[in-house]
Amino acid sequence: MSTFSFENNHFLMDGKPFQVVSGAMHYWRIVPEYWEDRLKKLRACGFNTVETYVAWNLHERREGEFDFSGNLDIVRYIEIAESLGLNVIVRPGPYICSEFDFGGLPSWLLAYPDMHLRCNDPMYLEKVRPYYRELLTRIRPHLCTNGGKIIMVQIENEYGSYGDDKEYLHAVADMYLEYGIDCQLYTSDGPCYWMLNGGTLPEYPAVANFGSRPEQAFQLLNDFRPGQPSMCGEFWCGWFDHWGEEHHTRSAEETLRDLVPMLELGASFNFYMFHGGTNFAFTNGANHTGAQYQPTITSYDYCSPLSEAGDMTPTFYAVRDALAKYTGVSNPIDVEDLPKAAYGKITMTERAPLFDNIAAIGTVKHHAAPLSMEEVGQDFGYIMYSTTLRGPSETLDLILEHVHDRALVFLDGKFAGIRERTGRKDEIKITLAKGETKRLDIFVENCGRVNYGPKLFDKKGIFGGIRLGQQYHFGWDMTSMTMDDLSGLTYTADTANDNMPAFLRGTLNVNGKPADTFLRLDGFHKGFVVVNGFNLGRYWNDRGPQKTLYVPAPILHEGANEIVVFESDGYEAPVIESLAEPDLG
Questions:
Q1: H-helix or E-strand containing 87?
Q2: Which of 146, 152, 176, 372 could form a disulfide with 463 if both were Cys (CB 3.0 to 4.6 A apart)?
Q3: So what's the pLDDT on residue 2?
Q4: How far is CA 49 from the centre of its chain?
Q5: Per-residue pLDDT tens over the stretch 478-533
């Protein structure tokens, strides 16, 4: 059993001064087969600690149903870190931000209209408690106080950026203590007074998050909270991308410019990120400027010391050398980049039109008014709103109130236009003769819930109503499509493009042991890719910057591998390509 605490300006490990040299890697953004490889590289770079958030929205996708298996097996992840001699910092939220859907909060919380999030609301805390019970009882044996390697657990996350409810922060800390989390608790916030004032508790150390000007940040932190260790809880060594932006990069030299002063001060820090990984499936979050909705891309490369595919970058080597110089720590662990392969062009040979397969992949609920995804119990994916319009009616505008986030409109099975929350807004007019009927289908994609700031209450689908002119239309079938299981699709050999949403299937052949690869979809516009049942995530070639999707070798096998591409907007050619290098723009 070890002790970890602080006294004056130092953290103490077993009573001796200790500098936390930590790197963030989130277990769910990495396939489990690669956890050991990534953690070994962290150790080889000279780090002594790994930090991870915990994604409540993945562990409890449906209220009361918990999953800690596969890439959600956080205990196994911690055990691998322990076997490599790494300490562990856990950040259980309940809110984590992390450019992740809804900041890691489960979407079903939004189905409770009277609930107030991230405050001392009894209803909200009642929902947090079962999650904490499930998580904290699992990790408790791995606390340093119980002989494990977990040295710190964070209270909430950057709370001062959002609120100032000290009773709420105490309620979170009290739950930790109730479930036996007796290691060092702490808070983290931005390095400004209003954030630190709102998000900290006097009995626990506060750390500051920043990516530059460390001397100024530590001076402010120490002025706000003297007599505690200086620690950067998130040293932003890179940044993330939104669809439609240029790809963010940061040189090794620039990273060292801000790292070295922390090393010279002997301060503790946590690289955010050491290895970013991937927003697999539909888990990416979004930002909102107040005027514009900005969904995050699939790659979470973050310009980290390890690339999205776990390769050691120039920043890795520069940081390793700096740590060896200033800390005297050098870990001669044998690590290497994993092999990459280009498997060439892959022709999609089968097609399953969406409208012919809705019953196989969706569940239907009828209601008078259109309901949001959350109101029908859906977290990720797409939802179809379907109804029948009956004439007579003059020519009227189709009005969709609160489209979150991208709607494709179809009249009698033919494409009529696109309405985007931010971006394209086609004018759609409908005329109905006496006795005429028309089928109206509105296919809506959830592009990622807002994960930061005051726009956090981000329901998906269509809510507020659908009108023809000023008249609300009632009577809707809502088909939820999470796209978790595509095994029921019926394909034909006809791959002709009709510019309608469709699934296309092809085969990637692997000779010998599989290697990591990257899929490029130049002939496609918007959708997602599933390989052997594993959802790689979204592509959006019309926006960029990301042009390839990362395929980890463990999801492949020797021989024939099934690739399914869902394309919502039509395609030029049903051909994709497997490359040995990524293109993030």
A1: strand 87-91
A2: 372
A3: 86
A4: 22
A5: 999 999 999 999 999 999 999 999 999 999 999 999 999 999 999 999 999 999 99
* Residues assigned a catalytic role: 158, 234
Tokens of 148: 């494990």
Task: Reply yes or no on whether the pLDDT at 140 is more than 90.
Answer: yes
Nearest Cα residue to 22 out of 174, 235, 228, 186: 235
Strands 10-13 and 4-7: antiparallel
Structure tokens at 509: 């052949």
CA–CA distance, 74 with 525 (Å, rounded to integer): 35
Tell me the residue ranges of DSSP E strands in 319-455.
Answer: 344-353, 363-367, 382-390, 393-400, 403-404, 406-411, 414-420, 429-432, 437-445
Per DSSP, the residues of 340-368 read: B---EEEEEEEEEEHHHHHHHH-EEEEES
* Residue in the block written with tokens 């097996």: 73
Gap between the Cα atoms of 434 and 390, Å rounded: 8
Q: Which of 28, 3, 189, 11 is nearest to 101 (CA)?
A: 28
Interior angle at CA 507, CA 502 and CA 508, nearest 5 = 125
The least confident of 2-11, 120-129, 355-364 is 2-11
Integer Rg of the chain from CA: 25
In whole angstroms, give the CA distance from residue 578 to residue 559: 15
Residue 70 dihedral angles phi and psi, to the nearest 5°: 60, -130
- H/E element, 287: strand 286-288
Q: How far apart are CA 143 and CA 177, in angstroms?
A: 13
Name residue 111's amino acid: A
Task: Burial-class residue 113 by CB neighbours within 10 Å (0-12, 13-18, 19+).
Answer: exposed
Q: What is the mean pLDDT of the chain?
A: 97
Please tell me whether the peptide bond between 113 and the residue prior to it is cis, using omega within 30 degrees of 0: no
Q: Which of 186, 13, 150, 175 is nearest to 77 (CA)?
A: 150
pLDDT at 331 over 90: no
User: What is the Cα–Cα distance from 171 to 106, expressed in whole angstroms?
Assistant: 19
Whole-angstrom distance, CA of residue 276 vs CA of residue 99: 11
Is the Cβ–Cβ distance between 411 and 438 less than 8 Å?
A: yes
**pLDDT higher than 90, residue 332:** no
Name the percent of the chain in helix, strand, coil, to the closest 5: 25, 35, 45
Q: Contact, 432 vs 398, CB < 8 A?
A: no
* Residue 481: per-residue pLDDT: 98
CA separation for the pair 18, 40 (Å, rounded) = 21
